[in-house]
């Protein structure tokens, strides 16, 4: 409507919808003090403190965690408290007034949530078994060493072993990516990758040795490492242990019994055949599972940093083994406890999320966890280094470098660990080959610098709560 409508004779100015100036409004005049007019005022409700206290005591466990009176109001509504009951029984004008009173009476309590199961709880027996399995193949060298010239065979076997180590790291990462898609896809990746890795390592050994029977030894070593990688990726550690039984049976009595050249050669070959047969059987079972539909292969460069880290780790271990061969055995066996500590770090980090309230507090807790894991890993290696006659500083710094790098890789941070370890290995190898100062001290210096850089990366990248959420 554009204006007021005339409802009665006399014009629109009498219409109740017409706008009037304030002067035209008639306000009720105030009554004088001597006016005998009776005014009735309804009494306001008075809160019944006893009833309110009784209600607060009955609902204290549910009101305490509330962060706002509105949560208490919702609780009272859920309890079926009516507006009449609020006014008549508790003496409050409305539900929100009663909720505010209850919120003020009950102190704030925030109970701890029920402890959730640790998703990163490690299998202790499996981790220890893996450490033993990493070292057991060394028994084959112990058995076969008297059959030929060890100094002649060593360069080819070392070169093939370094290639197998680097290839196995990359293949293991790619196979685990495919395992997330399906076991059939992982089996295909392992079948193709293991065959290519064994061929590449054998070719490297043959190139270093210049052909001859050394090539056969390099081929046997490469085939074993490829088959063992298949079994370890597919979590068939006990089957691999059973395949290595001939090596154990032949090496244990060596201090008291000479098996002869036939057994010294036959037992490693029997263990190799058993390992290949076990890997073939497992791959056959895996490939018999139906493939997952619509899957895509991950790009090859994704696994490149893992292979580069394997190359760097093999080089660092090789440099340590040149001076102290038995220290390499100690380091190899320690990979089992190292894997166990990787799981524990992840589990403890998830627990730290529940125990801290600020990013700074979580960073401080992460630094403590890193120090605790490193101490637990390195402390048992100290007497082992002394028993083997190795330099404790070199062995401990090398172990710290490898563990922190593996920790970053466990969280998918592969390139920093690979580049840092490659730099350390390259510097140490260059100084060693050219016989530059500081000589043998270069390995602990490079490993110490690498461990420090990796620790900074761990705190900077893994010290954030979002990484563990």
TrEMBL record:
Keywords per UniProt: Membrane, Transmembrane, Transmembrane helix
Membrane spanning residue stretches: 127-144, 150-168, 189-208, 214-234, 239-256, 300-319, 325-342, 362-381, 393-411, 418-436, 442-462
Keyword Transmembrane included in the entry's annotation: yes
Chain residue ranges for the region called Disordered: 1-20
Keyword Transit peptide among record annotations: no
Name by which UniProt lists this protein: Uncharacterized protein
Lineage: Bacteria, Bacillati, Actinomycetota, Actinomycetes, Kitasatosporales
